[in-house]
Design a protein that fits this description.
It contains six helices and 14 strands. By secondary structure, it is α+β, with helices and mostly antiparallel strands. Helix 3 packs parallel to helix 4.
């Protein structure tokens, strides 16, 4: 089974690229972030035509997350985390794996910039609440995969020039510690687990020639709980969609479960 996470930066603006990706990758489940639309305007029909059902938690113009899936997703919930601003940032669901279920948690973490505003405090509070929710979820089901746009650069190797991001909410030490706290609940950053020293990115800004210069960041992640670590066959950052016309500034990260 192939599971993909991709911040598409507007599902309607990027629909042609998304459909092209589905056709070529044949991914089983696509976890979308920043869909930037309410459910009423979501392109359900376009995905249905190519064999995918959609499970959507939308918001007008901003945020929003969704599952696009060939396989049935059960127990889909959009109230896993209700933040103080009531933003659409988390959708969860269960997929069957042999006699057990795996809980998929699709997230879009707040950016948090600028750091001298309440946006940064909101990000810290959001991560504290999310970590607490995951800790409780692990009591009921130890098979959990968290995927999405974390808006966190875990280490220096995960950014083209870490010195430029020392006062950025994506790389602030206390934010990176929140990421580590989450991992310490019983997860692995699966990309780094398989690629100890490799320097690859999932995001390139639209400005300053970031894409052709490869001035990127690794901020999109899959965290896999220890209980199912041995079921993961491979993880891959697929850069092809970033090179398309009218691309998202993020590119897909793909998780293969054996």
């Amino acid at each position: 089974m192939l599971i993909t996470s991709w911040n598409v930066n507007s599902v309607r603006a990027r629909i042609s690229n998304i459909l092209d990706y589905l056709k070529k990758s044949k991914t089983d489940i696509l976890m979308l972030q920043e869909i930037k639309t309410e459910e009423i305007n979501f392109p359900f029909a376009e995905f249905k035509k190519v064999g995918y059902n959609s499970y959507v938690f939308g918001q007008k113009s901003y945020n929003g997350v969704a599952f696009i899936s060939k396989v049935k997703i059960d127990e889909v919930k959009t109230d896993f985390l209700v933040d103080e601003r009531k933003q659409s940032r988390v959708i969860v669901g269960d997929i069957q794996y042999k006699k057990n279920s795996i809980k998929l948690v699709n997230i879009y973490v707040p950016n948090g910039n600028p750091i001298d505003t309440d946006k940064y405090d909101f990000k810290k509070n959001w991560l504290n609440l999310f970590n607490l929710k995951i800790k409780k979820a692990l009591i009921k089901n130890k098979n959990i995969i968290i995927g999405g746009d974390f808006n966190i650069i875990p280490e220096k190797i995960d950014v083209h020039d870490y010195k430029k991001y020392e006062n950025d909410a994506l790389f602030k030490l206390e934010i990176r510690k929140k990421f580590l706290e989450l991992i310490n609940l019983g997860f692995h950053d699966i990309y780094r687990y398989y690629n100890k020293e490799k320097q690859e990115y999932t995001f390139w800004d639209y400005t300053s020639g970031a894409w052709p210069k490869n001035n990127g960041l690794r901020i999109d992640h899959f965290l896999v709980s220890n209980n199912i670590l041995d079921k993961i066959k491979n993880v891959n950052i697929n850069k092809n969609p970033r090179s398309k016309v009218k691309p998202s500034d993020h590119t897909p990260i793909e998780l293969l479960i054996n």
